[in-house]
Design brief:
Elements lengths: L1 E8 L9 E4 L9 E11 L1 H7 L2 E10 L4 E8 L11 E4 L12 E5 L3 E3 L6 H5 L2 H14 L12 E5 L4 H13 L3 E5 L3 H10 L3 E3 L5 H7 L5 E6 L3 H11 E9 L18 E4 L4 H5 L5 H15 L7 E4 L5 H13 L5 E5 L2
Parallel strand pairs: 9-10, 9-12, 10-11, 12-13, 13-14, 15-16
Antiparallel strand pairs: 1-2, 1-4, 3-5, 3-7, 3-16, 5-6, 6-8
Length: about 350
Amino acid sequence: MKAIALTRYLPISNPESLKDVEIDKPTPTGHDLLVKIEAIGVNPVDTKVRAPKDKVEESPRVLGWDASGTIEAVGPDVTLFKAGDPVFYAGSITRPGTNSEFHLVDERIVGKKPASLDFSHAAALPLTTITAWEALFDRLGVSAEGKDAGKSVLIVGGAGGVGSIGIQLAKKVAKLKVIATASRPESAKWATELGADHIVDHFGDMPKQLKKAGFEQVDYVLIFNDTDKHFPAAAAVIAPQGGICTIVENSNPIPVELLKAKSAAFHWEFMFTRAMFGTPDMVEQHKLLNEVARLIDAGTIKTTLGRDLGKINAANLREAHRLLEEGRAIGKMVMTGF
């Protein structure tokens, strides 16, 4: 089967960084689904895994952690799906990725594709949606039933992939007051259209901008961009007994002591945790993706597709990685069909 893979970890400008290859088609066992891939999404995690380093793979390594497609076959232990079902999911970072014609994935982290979306628009959703959902509802403990309506959240990185769905979940599902960060007119427009009540520039003085917008403090902060840079501002604006959650790894020690006087909480969110460790609640990702599909089909939230780069091939995938590494992508980038 066709796939895009790497054997060496190279700068994306090098044509060998991601290559078109032929690999064996896998066979499902256990709880696995064999999915015929129709569309894929691209995320910053792809570029981080591919980043240059002194390592050579003995066999081609396939990346990619976002996909939509149709189930071709199922393992003997599968109970949630059947062949022919259209699905969407992000997969596991410990297994081969989705950038291939066929892909194996555990049924417990897969959702039924929103009926109102085509495969391209569905592929833009899984990884970022799981990340934003878990950060907001599982880590920070915000009510998904609207019981925290009226509370405030600052979303750092509002126009990115996770921010784009995070704004919608916070506004449309949790009923929060949403302040999102954006540094360019086009990204500010995007975040506002998704439901942000206020926009602040993360390159400026965020506490000062928040105060000007009428917020002395906020109940929650979601850091979806540069934890090292933005944690001090988050600590300054978080309300006593509030919560901060970040999805971005740090390069320097995080000064969590800034939160002590406020008894504020600090959380990490890594959407691969459940699949990586085989946690007993893995099936929660299946449930949340099905709930997101319901919300999409009801018109409550919408896809975050920003750009379709065309066919699934190495050249287009290298372009997606390049754009992500430049840090100027709005929404999600997808590719459709081999």
